[in-house]
Amino acid sequence: MDLEFLELTDTQTRFIISGTVPAFVNSIRRSMIADVESMSIEDVNFYNNTSVIFDEMLALRLGLIPLTGGEEYFSSTTCSCNGEGCFQCQVSLTLNVKGPATVYSGDLTSSDPKVVPADGGIPIIKLFKSQELMLEAIARKGSAKNHARFQSAIATSYKYLPKFSIKDCNGCKECIDACPKQIIRYENGSVHVTDELQCTLCNLCAEACESGAITVTGDPHSFVFYTESDRSMSCRDLLITSVESLRDRASKLADFLATFG
Questions:
Q1: What is 2-34+154-226's CATH number?
Q2: What is the predicted pLDDT for the residue at 30?
Q3: Rounded to an integer, what distance in angstroms lies between the CA atom of residue 163 and that of residue 177?
Q4: Which end of the chain has fewer CB atoms at under 10 Å, N or C?
Q5: CATH class in words for 38-149
């Protein structure tokens, strides 16, 4: 199995994985979405809220703010406090703002400087004159298996690696207008593809070709994988953590099956 990175930043990554099957690539995608743990606001204690939005709606907005850090914390299910809440499994973030003001995620003050909003510019609410918002938000560690608020991977997808074959082109140019990605050009009496990786395998170009010169297929053993991070962790850490989760579960399954051996 080979891996070739086309792009790798903190917020997004794209790579080609070859020499494998769709089931394995899909397991990486599902592990990224559901297995990777992160910190997220789970409970909110309101002490004063005279804004125009109900407590429940504000709590929902706070729960969707990505938080950084939290690697050293336990999840509620594995902590020695048995989910009661302690310094090993939860972080307190406080907010106290009086209007007129726009309240942003950066206004949250965390008890742990490592566990803070990934983006301080996320708007929470606009307070008008004489309005006030005072609360304590409790962040805990979890995975998207339990709730979508813990999902760090977004827009995670993969596709077969596109392969083009162009033979005996008569220069009708119908494929150029048919391609939704605009990656087909006409030069020197024939058409050619400028960027195969942008192809969505829709086959509209092949259907529009008058002479049947274009054939578009997907390599069944090579895939283009793409994902974005909500910035609670880097894409590099997201990929490594998801693969480690798969490896650990495969190891446990092998050990279990060995007992029947």
A1: 3.30.1360.10
A2: 95
A3: 20
A4: C
A5: mainly beta
